[in-house]
């Protein structure tokens, strides 16, 4: 059982909370779609860990990521003029570079050059990959190496990112990605038209788990026996602290792969990022269009609890299990319906929740080590080497076979 103190430690990320400090200091995070930042275009507000930032692409293509408030009087730099490789506050014309240097203070009459050198503006390093601008929000020392997952350097045609803001704590998003037991139940209507590799998932909702601990996180194998005696394995990769690599349906280069990343906006909101990628060919364009039209980045969930988030009871009467038209919406609704922060002291966990239990333990161990001055394994060079990590899955002749032998 998760205690009340553990739940607080796991979920709180604002105002210097230990988990928030660890995530900011040790890990990079996705912040904004690259496509939203145009050279000399409109700056974009970004909220992470309960703080407000502004991102912009300068004239020369570099990314600026600064505190949103102008250091002069606190006016939002999202209103600013993005020009000449800097952002200029519209209030008094202060001009700030992508590296946080104050270049001009036109309303200062007494030695403006000397004065501007005294102004400190927080700015944060960024990299781009998979159509996303990633940021490091740490405040001590140098930034760690950026993520080196296989999708980071793929061309735009082979990696597509999208996301949605949800009214739920970040951990609810993380736990959803590692929970394979809900697939046969929550998503049963979608599975009816899925490939035959998922037959065992449709007919056997009782999942057995096996695990392998790694420096970077956990490999969680969800095993389901089929009527013919074979066994379908779905091996999800949890990569600290918020990545879920979901196994494709089927095996081989033809299959697009999915990554889900749950990033804290604040204590009670998260961005659920999805990256669809393929190392061998362009990502399925139909999937790309469908995802973009179904849940755009700024769209959020339709309706609210009073409307059951757009649930359609007519669909349910005609055979749809949940009353939602899209598989990812089913995931979003269940997370949000739990409330802003789940009270985990009231849960009755079962054997199918072993993956969730292990993720919580790993996060708790990491944050306790961090606050004790010890680097968690996932922040060591070995734990940061993500290049070869792939979720996998497939059908084995029997449950006695070793799922670790499945090709990634």
TrEMBL record:
<dbReference type="InterPro" id="IPR050584">
    <property type="entry name" value="Cholesterol_7-desaturase"/>
</dbReference>
<feature type="domain" description="Rieske">
    <location>
        <begin position="28"/>
        <end position="135"/>
    </location>
</feature>
<keyword id="KW-0479">Metal-binding</keyword>
<dbReference type="InterPro" id="IPR017941">
    <property type="entry name" value="Rieske_2Fe-2S"/>
</dbReference>
<dbReference type="GO" id="GO:0051537">
    <property type="term" value="F:2 iron, 2 sulfur cluster binding"/>
</dbReference>
<keyword id="KW-0408">Iron</keyword>
<dbReference type="Pfam" id="PF19301">
    <property type="entry name" value="LigXa_C"/>
</dbReference>
<dbReference type="Pfam" id="PF00355">
    <property type="entry name" value="Rieske"/>
</dbReference>
<protein>
    <submittedName>
        <fullName>Rieske 2Fe-2S domain-containing protein</fullName>
    </submittedName>
</protein>
<keyword id="KW-0560">Oxidoreductase</keyword>
<keyword id="KW-0411">Iron-sulfur</keyword>
<dbReference type="InterPro" id="IPR045623">
    <property type="entry name" value="LigXa_C"/>
</dbReference>
<keyword id="KW-0001">2Fe-2S</keyword>
<dbReference type="GO" id="GO:0016491">
    <property type="term" value="F:oxidoreductase activity"/>
</dbReference>
<dbReference type="InterPro" id="IPR036922">
    <property type="entry name" value="Rieske_2Fe-2S_sf"/>
</dbReference>
<dbReference type="GO" id="GO:0046872">
    <property type="term" value="F:metal ion binding"/>
</dbReference>
């Amino acid at each position: 059982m998760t205690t009340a103190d553990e739940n607080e430690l796991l979920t709180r990320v604002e105002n210097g909370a230990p988990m928030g400090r660890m995530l900011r200091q040790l890990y990079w995070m996705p912040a904004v779609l690259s496509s939203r930042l145009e050279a000399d275009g409109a700056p974009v507000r970004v909220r992470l860990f309960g703080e407000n930032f502004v991102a912009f692409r300068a004239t020369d293509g570099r990314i600026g990521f600064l505190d949103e408030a102008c250091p002069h009087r606190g006016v939002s730099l999202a209103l600013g003029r993005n020009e000449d490789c800097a952002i200029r506050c519209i209030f008094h014309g202060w001009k700030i570079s992508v590296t946080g240097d104050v270049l001009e203070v036109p309303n200062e009459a007494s030695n403006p050059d000397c004065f501007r050198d005294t102004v400190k503006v927080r700015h944060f390093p960024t990299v781009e990959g998979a159509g996303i601008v990633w940021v490091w929000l740490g405040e001590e020392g140098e930034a760690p190496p950026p993520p080196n997952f296989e999708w980071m350097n793929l061309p735009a045609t082979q990696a597509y990112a999208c996301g949605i803001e949800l009214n739920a704590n970040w951990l609810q998003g993380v736990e959803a990605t590692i929970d394979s037991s809900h697939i046969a139940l929550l998503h049963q209507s979608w599975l009816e038209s899925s490939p035959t590799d998922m037959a065992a998932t449709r007919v056997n909702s009782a999942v057995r788990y096996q695990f392998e601990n790694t420096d970077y996180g956990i490999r969680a194998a969800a095993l389901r026996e089929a009527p013919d005696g074979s066994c379908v394995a779905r091996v999800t990769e949890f990569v600290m602290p918020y990545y879920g690599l979901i196994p494709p349906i089927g095996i081989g280069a033809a299959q697009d792969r999915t990554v889900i990343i749950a990033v804290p906006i604040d204590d009670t909101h998260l961005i659920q990022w999805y990256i669809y990628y393929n190392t061998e060919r362009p990502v399925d364009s139909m999937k790309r269009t469908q995802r973009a039209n179904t849940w755009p980045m700024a769209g959020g969930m339709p309706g609210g609890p009073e409307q059951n988030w757009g649930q359609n009871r007519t669909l349910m009467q005609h055979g749809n299990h949940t009353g939602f038209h899209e598989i990812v919406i089913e995931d979003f609704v269940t997370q949000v319906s739990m409330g802003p922060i789940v009270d985990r002291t009231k849960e009755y966990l079962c054997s199918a929740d072993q993956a969730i239990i292990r993720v919580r333990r790993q996060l708790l161990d990491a944050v306790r080590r961090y606050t004790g001055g010890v680097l968690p394994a996932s922040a060591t060079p070995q734990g940061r080497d993500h290049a070869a990590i792939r979720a996998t899955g497939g059908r084995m002749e029997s449950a006695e076979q070793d799922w670790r032998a499945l090709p990634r």
